[in-house]
Amino acid sequence: ARYPKITNELLQSLVKYGACQPFEKDMTNNTFPVDPKTKRHFSSSYYFIKNSMNEITKYHWMSYSIIQNVVYCHPCWLFGDNATKQSIWVSGYSDWKHLTQSAIFHCNSKQHFR
């Protein structure tokens, strides 16, 4: 989630390929790294949300950084204004206990829609 200035060529590739969304099978030992303090870890189930009608929707915007073990908002990272760039959803979010609630809040936020 941390890169120097993004060239137009790189931006086009990042848009074309979309958010990085690895699954457990893509990880070493088929699991995401465990936070030593909280004993929690990311799960690919966080890419999906079930609405009140039990319909499952995918968060296409959520991206997972294998190197940093954080999630971030792919479009906010690429296209956000200066205020959005200060968001935890751009620098990286790793509070796995509260990720579901935070993701719902973020995708309905004004920042996300800028």
Note the main sheet: 2 strands, antiparallel
The average pLDDT value, as a whole number, equals 90
Number of E-state strands: 4
**Helix and strand pattern:** HEEEEHHHHH
**What would you report as the Rg, rounded to the nearest angstrom?**
14 Å
Strand content: 5-15%
When the domains are counted, the total is: 1
Task: Name the structural class.
Answer: alpha+beta
- State the end-to-end distance: 19 Å
- Helix fraction by DSSP (H/I, runs of at least 4): 25-40%
**Shape by Cα distribution:** globular
Number of helices: 6
**Oligomeric nature of the chains:** single chain
- pLDDT below 50 for ≥5 consecutive residues: which ranges? none
Q: Biggest sheet: strands side by side, in what order?
A: 1-2
Walk me through this protein's architecture.
This protein has 114 residues and is α+β, with helices and mostly antiparallel strands. It has one domain. The chain is built from 6 helices and 4 strands; from the N terminus they run αββββααααα. Strand 1 and strand 2 form a beta hairpin. The longest helix is centred in the N-terminal third of the chain and has 10 residues. The radius of gyration is 14 Å and the shape is globular.
